[in-house]
Amino acid sequence: MALKNIESVPGGPGEPGSGLIQLITADGVRVPEPAYDALVADIDGAALQGLYEDMVVVRRIDSEATALQRQGELALWPPLLGQEAAQIGSGRALRSDDFVFSSYRENAVAYCRGVDLTDILRVWRGNASSGWDPYAINMATPQVIIGAQALHATGYAMGILNDGDDAVAVTYFGDGATSQGDVNEAMVFAASFQAPVIFFCQNNHWAISEPVGLQAHVPIANRAPGFGIPSVRVDGNDVLACLAVTRQALARARSGGGPTFIEAVTYRMGPHTTADDPTRYRDANELEDWAAKDPLKRLEAHLDSLGLFDEAFTAAVKAKADAVAAELRAGCLGMPEPAPSDVFKHVYSTPNSWLDRQQDHYERYLSSFADSASSDGSS
Amino acid sequence: MAGVIKEFRLPDLGEGLTESEIVNWHVAVGDTVELNQIIADVETAKAVVELPSPYAGVIAELHEQPGTVVEVGAPLVSFEVAGPAGAPPSTGSAASGGDTGAPAKREPNLVGYGAAVEKGGRPERRARRFASQLSGGANPAGGSALPGLAERAGSAPMIEAVPAVPARPAVEAAPALAALESAGPPATPVRTISGERPRSTPPVRKLARDLGIGLEGVPGTGPGGLITRDDVLAAAQQTSASDGAGGSVAPASVIPSPATITPAGAQDTARETRTPIKGMRKHTAAAMVASAFTAPHVTEFLTIDVTPTMELIGRVKESRAFAGVRITPLTIVAKALCIALQRNPTLNSRWDEAAGDIVQFNYVNLGIAAATPRGLLVPNIKDAQELSLLELAGALTGLTERARAGKTGPADLSGGTISITNIGVFGIDAGTPILNPGEAAILAMGAVRRMPWEYQGQIALRSVMTLSLSFDHRLVDGEQGSRFLADIGAILADPGMVLTMV
Fold it and tell me: Fewest CB atoms within 10 A around its CB: which of A25, A126, B231, B293?
């Protein structure tokens, strides 16, 4: 059985007539898209510069964290290189009372939500079971179980309906997660209850080492209408287009229009995680093709064409990225060791006598060991 | 500026890896490096990764050479960095610090592996409160012992009870141990902590039991004196060696002791080094065995005067079109091989046993055997038949550079149809090369030597080279193999002969 490559299927990403929403081409040219132009009419030069700065900063966070892993300071890191536009474009469209349920690669979304940089690293350093208080930034801590967060988001969105609020739940997942039962179940419920939830799928073309063509013989966005959910395919490396389609989906959800499925067609330019070697399964030519569609480069070119990419601007962006990287590194290296009893924290939101008992036993067990001073003396 | 020496230990670069191989260093002692500057390429079981410097400073020492396999946690490189000893490595790190004592105890290279193994054996415990209750009656501390534990303590010996005599587990006193030789002088046990079971792991304990080795006598080389599989195997080897020397079986009552490890035995191991068969070596061996024992090899030799080719190389190098391009005898041999293949296509085929077919390739993916730091690789030049001499030279240079840098990709290595091995670079004249598996022929080119040779009816000093061609006799008859080799020889002996062939 020959495997069909989705790129060769008519309607594949990047081909004319593919239905891919794009506002800025890979060469940095702004192209009109009547249905979406009005949604980003307020994005002026300064706002574009802001989006560019965001993308540079999160790319820098990514490379610094990768370096920290190589230096033994983090156990693991899942790089987002190449997916900056999809995450920043959608993340910047959200309101602070919207709630994000992400996978483990959405560190740029977390950055948009205002997460403390050190908190991003806690789990990856093995210092905490979860990095932050979800209610402080209205973003759940990263879900490692593939696709499970789609159910959480749908449940949360059904809660919004019950509250009569106009907030929206947004769930992020990858192309691989669309083959998981959880994501499909979540879509059934979201459609049935017309819940205000956005399914934001970053199709980065690789589910670890499996190419997207293995599990999707049609564009992934085409699946959603089968559940009764409207969908859109957007150029995931075009930050402006990602912002526009997310705003459209948010407006639909807030006005009682129910869920939307967004397929952001992008590319994971790095490894799956720092423990992965993509050269073993991926053709270097493919990476080269996508490097030409780099989300940062195209916005650079666009800003340059507007005369907004001068030295003062780039210097300011670099200074910001340097400062963020230094803060990240300092926060990582200065993170205090957790106490053994910390494992009992944050398990239940209310007091729990069973857990208290376990904690009591564990602490007494720990105290049955000689302390380090006497141990050193006797050996 | 008096700097402080900072040692960087090899971290776990993947998830749960225990060792990595240094592929190469990008820096040398004395180099100044910036934070996150790439200092080395390291190959783990999962990937070749670049190692960014954790400090800004000067390289003080490289502890390991390229090609060595380093255990996670072993020193890799030392830096001389400015600033006080306690300061964190990067700028601005002090902001959230404050715990200047803590970093010294922490082992950041072992994130995810918990605390370091303590050197003094198992962690010691305080006497449990219920223990004093049992022995002394009243418990002044007044702690309420858990009922379950109290019951257990009453019905079974307590784990803290230390026997006065070193007790060995019964299983390790099995009769098999009686065979151990006790000829050496009595020595004090390596471990003096009485009652302490030698530190090891369950699979290694089982191995020791199966081999009849008492762990008391085995020196542990693992972390914290842990006895490893290798330690037990080494002990077993020494035991069998001394068995052979002694020739007698000791009485069953003899208790094995550390004395079985004799100095003579230690010397024996130093005279040999055992390397596990794995990785590249294992792969290469499997490929060679598969090739040598499935394809019946025939090797033919041809020695020719390649002076005209050497003169041609000199002229080509001077021409403007080839300025800066590396042209060597290999370049010309590669081109000649492609031309000769057009006239003798059977040499460019494959025996497909499974399908019951002979696959005739209508393209040439020309493999070049390369000795790399990682071992023998045969990357190939795709569609070499389409390439001009200039393009071929460029492709060869690219292939060599990638191989040397350890960056040969899977695409480079797959799909070869015929190969060249240049043994001449090692000063060798001829050999009987083994086919790259799946290919019908391989050509070995020998060294170009100035030799007395018949030239225009006289003896002259000429540049002479020997070609060795091995081919798969299932696919290629002697006639075709010989014509192919003769064609290549004819081109090298007189490059003008190409005109008669194309």
Answer: B293
